[in-house]
Amino acid sequence: MLTQDQMKLAAATKALEFIPDDAVIGVGTGSTVNLFIEQLATIKHRVQGAVSSSEATTARLKALGIPVLDLAVVDDLPVYVDGADEVNHYLHMIKGGGGALTREKIVAAVAKEFICIADETKYVTVLGEFPLPVEVVPMARSYVARQMERLSKPGIRVHPELRMASGDKVFQTDNGNYILDVHGLNIAEPVSLETYINQIAGVVTNGLFAQRRADVLILGTQHGVEVKR
Ligand SMILES: O=C[C@H](O)[C@H](O)[C@H](O)COP(=O)(O)O
To answer: Where does substrate bind (predicted)?
Structure first.
């Protein structure tokens, strides 16, 4: 029986086959991506560098000698590799468990191909068991929380929770914002919910990646690596 980390590593290693020569690569954030970064370091001589989606990823890339470029000076990003907290059969995702959703969404928007690397525990029929991260401007946190609660239905309570770092310290994103983790959503229509939440004043973005879904899912399973499109 493989561990979750072994399945993540298998998916991260397979992703190397999707990396074109001499390209700048978009790199996401999280434990699965950290394994990918270690693999990417083994072929760093054949890439120009990486665009990073978080301060944590930037530090790891630099530590392994992979040049980090500013997205603003990169015109062509053929591939973006990132993990997910949940991914459904249409390759819509929930992301942002590590709080990097906004920069991830920006880099993903620029990239031609989004390659999601995940282990089989992330593969779901309906998104929403994982609480949906919503990045908010700090002063809007209570207003946005109230708007999210209005998504409750009879028998289903939608419950936003302000993400804490430790003790009574509020978690802050790389952009200086807060995260509401929204529990109780059963997401039957990810594209319309993504749009709806993003229109609430004070929301920077939410962790649904449905309008810009993954193009390829590399899934580490107990029976080997599966590639889905
Ligand atoms: O903000 C974090 C990212 O969206 C990650 O891609 C996501 O949380 C998955 O992370 P992990 O690979 O650690 O499960």
So the answer is: 29-32, 82-85, 95-98, 122
